[in-house]
Design brief:
Layout: H1 2-8, H2 28-40, E1 48-58, H3 61-74, E2 78-81, H4 90-95, E3 98-101, H5 109-127
Parallel strand pairs: 1-2, 1-3
Helix pairs in contact: 1-5, 3-5
Length: 135
């Protein structure tokens, strides 16, 4: 993740936060409630909120770059949220401006973040017309 954060930073400011829920929470609903409170500390109402969800919209690379360009025109900052083992609470999903799916597969959140970071880097190289993406 730090590899792509370093590659993205000259193209767009980036901050990667990896909050954790401490302790063993066994009930799904309780874990989602606790994670919601933790995650809400990492974004503001002014940011364009994109939540990764397996039922979200699939985009190809060019479509993602185009969406990012439009989102940045509408908002100063973008925030991408990846849930933990139980996903993201329905209440938090309701706050999202966009639900994005990286794959119909269920991905470990660390792998999902890595895939997202590469997709963001690729998108920004397209927007900045830097040769990286090959269609």
């Amino acid at each position: 993740m730090s590899y792509y954060a370093k590659k993205i930073s000259p193209l767009c400011p980036v901050e990667v936060c990896l909050p954790r829920v401490k302790g063993g929470v066994e009930k799904k609903e309780e874990r989602l409630r606790i994670e919601k409170k933790v995650l809400e500390k990492y974004f503001t109402e002014d940011e364009f909120l994109v939540i990764l969800d397996e039922r979200g919209q699939f985009l190809n690379t060019i479509e993602l770059a185009s969406k990012i360009e439009k989102w940045l025109e509408a908002s100063k900052d973008l925030c991408f949220l990846v849930g933990g083992p139980e996903g993201i609470s329905p209440e938090l999903k309701h706050k999202a401006h966009f639900l994005l799916s990286l794959s119909p597969l269920t991905l470990n959140h660390e792998i999902a973040i890595l895939v997202l970071m590469e997709a963001l880097y690729r998108s920004f190289t397209i927007l900045k017309k830097i040769p990286y993406h090959r269609a």
